[in-house]
Amino acid sequence: MRTSGARRISLQSERHGPMTSRSEIADAAAAADGDTRAFERLYEAHVARIHSLVRRMLDADVVDDVTQDVFIRAWNKLGSFRGEAAFGTWLHRLAVNVILARRKQLGRQRERYAAGDEAVDRRAAGRETPGLAMDFEAAIGRLPPRAKEVFVLHDVEGYKHHEIAEMLEISDGTSKSQLHRARMFLRRYLDG
Description:
It is a single chain. The longest helix has 22 residues. It is elongated and about 50 Å long. It is 70% helix and 0% strand. The chain folds into two domains: 105 residues, RNA polymerase sigma factor, region 2, helix turn helix motif (Rna Polymerase Sigma Factor, Chain: A); 75 residues, Arc Repressor Mutant, subunit A (Orthogonal Bundle), CATH 1.10.10.
């Protein structure tokens, strides 16, 4: 029975500022107890942000599936939400974990790491519309996989290099160099 978990979540709601409302904490507690309407409200409140994160980090052909996987995982893990952070923060971290797991899975099926600067040059040279400026989202989509992960986590989502290093199981220096690489690629691509 999850009643004690729900009680713990609602008691801790006093500590949260504007990022997590009492109703969101209450919905998380109710959803943890099996209330599908409460979970639906949480889904509606967060699906756009999660979908956007997935779209930035993965190829378009898997975005909807991975977004769905995030919310399935959230439903299954709601009992672990303790209310120590905003629900959106908890969900975002869970989404990053699901995305990274999917990237690893996809990495076994195709190129996982960019192989030097030639790969960046090849991707930049392969634009379908050389005469038109590419929009930023499309440019991000053309980044080599590791550089794309680091760029999105650092510059878009606001993670620090040590956090990225821990998530991706790389060193801080590798995170910094991949971020630099991504920025240089974007600069060349968008100026091109």
